C-alpha cells in the first residue's frame, strides 16, 4: 500500500533534526486591550497618553480616532492597509463613556528569556497542541538552532538582556518577512524598526543553519538558566511548587524539582536523537498504561566533578525526563515503570541504537506515605567519594606517623 511505501522510505532515509519554531506572544498593538492601563482600547472621547521617554513601535489595525494623543518622542506607528488618522469631534461614539486619560502600559519588562512568553508553533504560525513530549524550562526559550516568529501585523518590544554576548538563532520572521541569513538580518538591524523592537545587552544573531549533529545539539541557554528561572518563578509566584515526593529530582535545564524518573544515556556516533525519540513515543509512550506520562528528551552537557569539585569540562549525554499525573503514594510510579522499560530496551537494542550505557534516578511516592525513590545515582556517587576520602585520610595518617618515627 502507499502507506507501507512511505514507512519504508522513512526508514531508509536518514532522520533529519526536526526544525523547532517558537513564536513570541506579547505585542504592543494599539487594539490589544491588555496594553492599556484601563484594560480597554481607547475610544473617541479619551485622551491617549504615551510616555515621552519610552521607545515604542505601535501597530494599528484601524484608524485612530481619540480626541487627543500624546505621542512618544521616539517611536513609530505602523498602519495596516487602509488605516489612517482621522479627525473626530467626539460628539458620538457607542460604548464610549465620558472619556478620560488612557495610558499605554510599560512594554519594557517583556524579557526574551521568559519561558511564559513563548509558544511552540508550526511553520505557518499555527499553535502546536500540547502533546506527550514537553521541554525542560531552558528549552522553552528559543535555542540556538530554532526558528523564531514574531507574528505578522504585530508590533512588539523585547528585552534581550543576557549572560551571553551573542544569542544565536537559525532564523527570525518579522512582519511576515523571513530573515534566514546573516546578511539579511544585518540589513534589518540597520533599519529604523529594529531599535524600537529589541533592546538590551544581548545581540541576536541569525546563522541560517540547523543542528548539524544527528545525535542532537544542546540548546545553548544554560548560561542564562538563572535568568530563565527567575522570570519563570516571577510569573508563577516567586517559588517552585512543593513536590509530593520526598526527594525530588532536578533535571538539567529545569527550574524546579520533579517527581518521576530521569535517565542519562551515553551514546556513540551512530545515535540518532530524532529516530530514538520517535521510537520511544511510538513503541512505549503510546501504550495505554502510560497514558498519563509525559517525556522530555534532549542532549545536555553535564559538568564533570571530582571529589565534589566541579571542573570546567562537561560531558554530553542524552537526558530523558519522565513525569506522570498520578497522585499520593502512586506519584511517579508510572514514570518509574516506563523508565524501567526504556532501560530494558537499551539492554536489548542499545548497541544497534547507538547507546553505550544509561543510568536512572527515580523519585516516587508521597511524603505522607513515606515512600522514597530508588536507583539514585547521587547516593552511589557519594558513597564512592566518601570511600576514597577515608582511604586517602588513612594513607595520610600512616605517612604522618612514619615521618614522626612512630612507625617503621
From TrEMBL:
It is found in: Cell membrane. Coiled coil: none annotated. It is a single-pass type I membrane protein. GO terms for cellular component: apical plasma membrane; endocytic vesicle. Keywords: Cell membrane, Membrane, Protein transport, Signal, Transmembrane, Transmembrane helix, Transport. InterPro entries: AMN. One of its GO terms (biological process) is receptor-mediated endocytosis. The chain crosses the membrane at residues 380-402. Residues 1-18 form the signal peptide. It comes from the Eukaryota. Its main location: membrane. PANTHER family: AMNIONLESS (PTHR14995), PROTEIN AMNIONLESS (PTHR14995:SF2). This is Protein amnionless. It comes from Tyrannus savana (Fork-tailed flycatcher). The lineage of its organism: Eukaryota, Metazoa, Chordata, Craniata, Vertebrata.
Amino acid at each position: 500500500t502507499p502507506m507501507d511505501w512511505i514507512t519504508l522510505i522513512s526508514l531508509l532515509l536518514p532522520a533529519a533534526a526536526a526544525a523547532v519554531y517558537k513564536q513570541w506572544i506579547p505585542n504592543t498593538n494599539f487594539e490589544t486591550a491588555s496594553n492599556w492601563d484601563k484594560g480597554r482600547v481607547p475610544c473617541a472621547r479619551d485622551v491617549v497618553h504615551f510616555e515621552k521617554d519610552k521607545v515604542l513601535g505601535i501597530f494599528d489595525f484601524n484608524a485612530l480616532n481619540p480626541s487627543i494623543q500624546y505621542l512618544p518622542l521616539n517611536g513609530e506607528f505602523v498602519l495596516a492597509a487602509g488605516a489612517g488618522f482621522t479627525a473626530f469631534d467626539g460628539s458620538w461614539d457607542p460604548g464610549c463613556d465620558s472619556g478620560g486619560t488612557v495610558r499605554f502600559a510599560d512594554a519594557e519588562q517583556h524579557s526574551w528569556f521568559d519561558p511564559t512568553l513563548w509558544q511552540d508553533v508550526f511553520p505557518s504560525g499555527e499553535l502546536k497542541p500540547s502533546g506527550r513530549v514537553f521541554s525542560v524550562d531552558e528549552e522553552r526559550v528559543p535555542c540556538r538552532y530554532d526558528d523564531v516568529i514574531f507574528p505578522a501585523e504585530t508590533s512588539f518590544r523585547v528585552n534581550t538582556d543576557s549572560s551571553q554576548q551573542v544569542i544565536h538563532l537559525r532564523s527570525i520572521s518579522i512582519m511576515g518577512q523571513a530573515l534566514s541569513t546573516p546578511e539579511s538580518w544585518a540589513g534589518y538591524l540597520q533599519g529604523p524598526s529594529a531599535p524600537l523592537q529589541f533592546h538590551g545587552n544581548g545581540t541576536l544573531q541569525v546563522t541560517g543553519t540547523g543542528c548539524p549533529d544527528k545525535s542532537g545539539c544542546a540548546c545553548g541557554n544554560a548560561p542564562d538558566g538563572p535568568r530563565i528561572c527567575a522570570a519563570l518563578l516571577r510569573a508563577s509566584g516567586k517559588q517552585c511548587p512543593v513536590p509530593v515526593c520526598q526527594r525530588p529530582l532536578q533535571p538539567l535545564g529545569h527550574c524546579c524539582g520533579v517527581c518521576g524518573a530521569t535517565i542519562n544515556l551515553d551514546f556513540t556516533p551512530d545515535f540518532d536523537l530524532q529516530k530514538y525519540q520517535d521510537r520511544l513515543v511510538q513503541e512505549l509512550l503510546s501504550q495505554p498504561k502510560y497514558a498519563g506520562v509525559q517525556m522530555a528528551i534532549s542532549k545536555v552537557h553535564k559538568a564533570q566533578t571530582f571529589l565534589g569539585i566541579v571542573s570546567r569540562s562537561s560531558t554530553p549525554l542524552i537526558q530523558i525526563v519522565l513525569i506522570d499525573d498520578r497522585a499520593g503514594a502512586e506519584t511517579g510510579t508510572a514514570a518509574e515503570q516506563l523508565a524501567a522499560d526504556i532501560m530494558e530496551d537499551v539492554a536489548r537494542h542499545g548497541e544497534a541504537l547507538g547507546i553505550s550505557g544509561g543510568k536512572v534516578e527515580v523519585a516516587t511516592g508521597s511524603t505522607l506515605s513515606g515512600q522514597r525513590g530508588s536507583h539514585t545515582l547521587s547516593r552511589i556517587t557519594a558513597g564512592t567519594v566518601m570511600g576514597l576520602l577515608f582511604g586517602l585520610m588513612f594513607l595520610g595518617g600512616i605517612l604522618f606517623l612514619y615521618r614522626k618515627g612512630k612507625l617503621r
